[in-house]
UniProtKB/TrEMBL annotation:
Signal peptide: none annotated. GO terms for biological process: proteasome-mediated ubiquitin-dependent protein catabolic process. It comes from Dioscorea zingiberensis. This is PCI domain-containing protein. Transmembrane segments: none annotated. It comes from the Eukaryota.
Amino acid sequence: MEEGLLDEMRKRMEEEIKKLDENLFEEGGDWEKKNRLQVYQGLYKSFFSEFSGLTEQIKLHHHLHPHIRFYMREVRTVIYSQFLESYKSVTMEAMATAFGVTVDFIDLELSRLIAAGKLHCKIDKVAGVLETNRPDAKNALYQATIKQGDFLLDRIQNLSRVIDL
């Protein structure tokens, strides 16, 4: 019963996306829906060019202008994480090409986001590769167990030193 319902919902979503695709790209349409669809389809380069136009409009608004950098960074973070979700590793050249920016820009942008803990990947600058490391519950439990084990070993060593005195 549930599988049939999920299958029906998936089919409906695909039909709706197809309708949106036809209507929005042929007739222009709503900017927000159009760009969400571009991101959904993996058209990151066209999204970024359209996104820069939106940011120019936001800069003119006196209430939103102070928050433009935060908004841009958060949107780019979501887009980068969506792109990286599909790969175990990807070259920085391929990512820069997909987004229509330079490798240096991608390197700088991703290094800031990784340092802030917003993206879960590592940059191999020598090979020019991004390696994703997806955090999951099992991995987090493993890391916590290792940390607690190290703490316990340190305590036991300290106690054995006290007893030996």
